[in-house]
Design brief:
The protein has a 16-stranded antiparallel beta sheet that branches. Strands 2-3 form a two-stranded antiparallel ribbon. By secondary structure, the chain is mainly beta. A hairpin with a 2-residue loop joins strand 15 and strand 16. The radius of gyration is 22 Å and the shape is globular. It contains two helices and 18 strands. The chain has a domain of 127 residues. This is Outer membrane porin. GO terms for molecular function: porin activity. Keywords: Signal, Transport.
């Protein structure tokens, strides 16, 4: 049976991705009366080689994966009810670049083997603009999000209420479990945040975002009962100076500490950051910095919301100070909204 498992997974991967092609074309057509089918094909190579004391490390990480997703969403019934399911897959292809002793890229499992998972399976209900979302779903907030920078995004078993209208977004609810990018298993939030493996606790979340004109603000609070609580804020604005010339700024802060009975011990940590930048005819230059107090490392669950978060490092260890330099160019003159190039260092 084991010898058949890999070929079957590869076949499933190709079937899902081939079925996704007509879904791309459907975006230009009239809406389908029976809902919406969408999909995406991904092929991803990742390697990481660290130096230890100036010497090449033997701990090399390397993966090459083929995969994607196929998603079906029902139409909104009377503008009140909606549901959807999404299947995700990531398979080692070819196996030459996916040795077990080089795992750890988050493209595949911790053993560099394939993943196929029902990542989304949700029902939604809309009552006067307040949408409730139940069970497996994506969530997009500063600290809890899909972290979709590899093959398969993070998804959550959660029960969420959200209001999103014009410049205001309000969101809150209970997040029971999380599925990380390198596994098909959904685990309790307390388990992945460092509490005892036997604990079975989820997370409360509440937050709001307000973004009128060129200003934006975010305030969020996350709490795993009797373990950890996190408060987060983000402020930013863009100020035009002339045609094709503007400057912008960001202020970001985070406070994280033990909660309730402090089952994981008494701890607290804070991080702050500031950034300023200038945009001239599509070219943007940024300078910023962050500082973490020296008590303990920041606990994170997904893509980190600070501007100096890199693909492999969040620069949020105890006592860490980071300088951020960034540059990007927007190719808006080619009339394609997704064409841009960026470079940053921290």
């Amino acid at each position: 049976m084991k010898s058949m498992k890999q070929p079957v997974s590869i076949v499933l991967c190709f079937v899902l991705c081939l079925l996704a092609f007509p879904a791309w074309a459907a975006d230009e057509e009239e809406p389908w009366a029976f809902g919406k089918v969408s999909g995406q094909l991904r092929y991803y190579y990742f390697t990481q080689r660290d130096d230890v004391d100036g010497q090449a490390s033997e701990d090399v990480k390397e993966s090459l994966a083929l995969g994607g997703y196929l998603k079906y969403e029902t139409p909104w019934i009377q503008d009140v009810f909606n549901s959807g399911v999404a299947m995700y897959t990531s398979q080692p292809f070819p196996e030459t670049f996916n040795q077990t002793d080089r795992a750890g890229t988050n493209l595949l499992t911790s053993q560099n083997t394939g993943i196929t998972v029902l990542g989304e399976a949700y029902a939604k209900m809309n009552i006067q603009g307040v949408v409730s979302s139940l069970y497996r779903q994506k969530i997009e907030t500063p600290l809890i999000n899909s972290n979709d920078s590899r093959m398969i995004p993070q998804t959550y078993e959660a029960y969420i209420l959200e209001y999103d209208e014009d410049d205001l977004r309000l969101i809150g609810g209970w997040i029971d479990k999380i599925k990380l990018r390198d596994t098909k298993r959904f685990r309790y939030m307390s388990e992945v945040t460092g509490a005892l493996d036997s604990s079975q606790r989820g997370m409360w979340m509440i937050g709001g975002e307000w973004a009128p004109d060129s200003f934006e603000s975010k305030v969020y609070y996350y709490a795993v009962p009797d373990y950890i609580q996190t408060s987060f804020f983000h402020l930013g604005a863009t100020h035009p100076l002339a045609e094709d010339l503007s400057w912008h700024w960001q202020l970001i802060g985070l406070d994280q500490r033990s909660l309730g009975s402090e089952d994981a011990g008494d701890f607290n940590v804070a991080e702050g950051g500031a950034l300023a930048g200038l945009t001239v005819s599509g070219f943007t230059m940024d300078v910023g910095g962050t500082i973490v107090d020296d008590t303990t490392d920041v606990t994170e669950w997904a893509s980190y919301p600070f501007f100096n978060e890199m693909m492999g490092y969040s620069n949020n260890r105890a006592g860490e100070k980071a300088l951020y330099l960034g540059a990007s160019y927007d190719f808006k003159w080619v009339q394609h909204e997704r064409e841009s190039i960026l470079c940053h260092n921290a």
